[in-house]
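Box S2. Input/output pair 1.
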Amino acid sequence: MKTPVPPEPVLALDRLSVRFRMRGGRYVAAVSDATLVLAPGECLALVGESGCGKSVLASALLGLLPGNAETAGSARLADGTDLLALDERTLARSIRGRRVGLVPQSPAAHLTPVRTVRSHLEETVRELTGTGRAELRSAAEAAADRAAFPATHLDLHPHELSGGLAQRAATALALIGDAPLLLADEPTTGLDRDLVHRTVDELRAHTRDAGRALLMITHDLAAAHRIADTVAVMYAGRIVETAPAGAFFGAPGPRHPYARGLLEALPERAFTPIPGAPPELGALPPGCAFAARCARADSRCRAERPALTEGVACHHA
């Protein structure tokens, strides 16, 4: 009997790095050597404190970085297409919305202020699915319902929406194209707990359908626990741990001290905050970036940066 050949990953990151060129010729490394694989049907939750590089990583995949950004490494789709190698025209016409969907952070900023939510949805439905004019209204309403956006608010403009409604509108737009890969940057921001559950359940169902994959960036560890198959923890621009969600949130638990600290800071756990603050990305220490906040750090930690080995980047794991 032949051994089944595993399907190609929906997304494979290989040492993806992003740095920003600053005045005076100085560089700030926002993402360093990120390596991740998303299989068909998989949801990966990327977690970490604000400013650690999560959103920069997602922006790099869709060519949405500012002009002073430089990228390295690769980010390949299932057919081998390297997203980092594509020009703006190709990204706009063939990738965004069609092959890679995006729920952006700060969604209101991505909506045209003079157009209603209905208009946004109808245009996106027409562009991505080819739905005829007669069916646009019902298709837009169906898209809104998937993201729990109320039909009574479809004729409002972006400035008339609360943060939670803008978030649901952005989620509805991202789901329309049924892209094989969905990037969701803080998709539960501004939602009450019931809507968080409905949103992540819809994203989970979307991921399972037709072997799609979801990369969800979030601070909400409860939402990550509910939806994720895999958890990746980012700190100071680097991925410091990857683990199956069951092992991360259950037994044996996280292995990196920072990852353990994230869980212990939750109110339903020990509610013990991590001391100190993350280092500036433009002035990272030579060794482990977490050493100054870690009770287990020694001279080796302060001098030698640990590599990500067997899913964890820690000399003491």
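Box S3. Input/output pair 2.
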Amino acid sequence: MNAMKNKVQLIGHVGNEPEIKNFEGGKKVAKLTLATNESYRNEKGEKVTQTEWHKVTAWDKTAEIIEKYVTKGKEIAVEGKLTYNSYEDKNGEKRYITEVKVNEILLIGKLNQ
């Protein structure tokens, strides 16, 4: 049960071209947004689709896979954990970011999607 304390699994479409950064020592990070959709019927019986956007970060080998194969619009599945960070903006106000730190990625759509 320990492994399930902070575990996230998402399937969705990539919302932007992944941003790749390389660091000294060969470390690499990939950042992207992932859109997940949920549909339901409202009180009038109309179908409503709600889209949620998730910030996703992947490191090293997973970042390399993203750099090679993932583009805007591609459907992927990710598994990871939620992380929380804070920073001060240019006005000195504290801002908070919630991200999914990816452990595994599955490419669902076609390679040339």
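Caption for Box S3: The mean pLDDT is 92. The helical segments are 60-69.
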